[in-house]
Amino acid sequence: MPIIERDPWRTQYFDGVSCPDYVEIPTEERDAYRLFPKYRWVFNKLSVAESQGIACGLHGMDIPAYPVFSKPVYNMRGMGVGSRVLRSPKAYERYLRAGHFWMELLSGEHVSTDIAVVHGEPRWWRHGMGTAIGEGKFDYWTISAAPRPAIEDYCDAWIRRHLSDYTGMVNLETLGGKIIEVHLRFADQWPDLYGQGWLGALVRLYSEGVWEFADTDRRDGFSVVLFGAHGVEYQHPSSDLIARLRVQPHISSLQIPFHADRPIWAHAMPPGGFRLAIVNCWDLEAGTAVREELALAFWSAQKLVGRRLRRRAASAT
Length: 317
Prior knowledge:
The protein is of the alpha+beta class.
């Protein structure tokens, strides 16, 4: 598939999209890094902070004031892995890591912005606002139909200055209006909420270098996330349950974003929990109701797995 989607739970968005075989459209860091060598520097989060004059430095350098935020300079797997707030010199000494850096602790709204860019000029914007619940987790994202003029003005200037001849999608994560992450791709968690014709416009952006999208049915959407505890062996819910929940009113899509055939430690997840499901919807109450039913299904399966593991351990002795 020319739209390179490595997560099987998200291929549902792209299965029916016609795309020339010679075109590659990335949805992950590793592919964007390969496809755009000129702009590989944006994967360096220290460089992104420096490009905005944000106070920052590598681990091992003096920190002038606390608290600060610490994370890897490069993180190709995402999900907040290895990130934390450092509130004192003692904490800095404890978590000193090669390949990490510290930066000014920003505050404010966390926004994920997808931008269609043609030769360094932003042509289309869409903003997702995360409702944080701590430890790198988000309860849900609101994919807003409304513009964000302050963010768009700031990010427009940054893109024109630093990505002057880039054509493609850019995802910028901002906190308090400052850029904290740059991705040379779009957020593949919710492209189904962008409206009819968006995927066709995406293909033309990469195949012809133009952006043409009417955006006439733009409306608010929501991406509701279900987390479970770390250290638990989970099973996917039944296919019958997934099929039934996907066709509930106001539900756009449903993802089970982990590999059941891989060990839990092989997944990149935020510190506070293991991401079990994502429900994209047009009504938050409807999406939350589906999440609650999925939570019950995972809880039931978790108990069954536990009994099997106990039986297995007993037979081994």
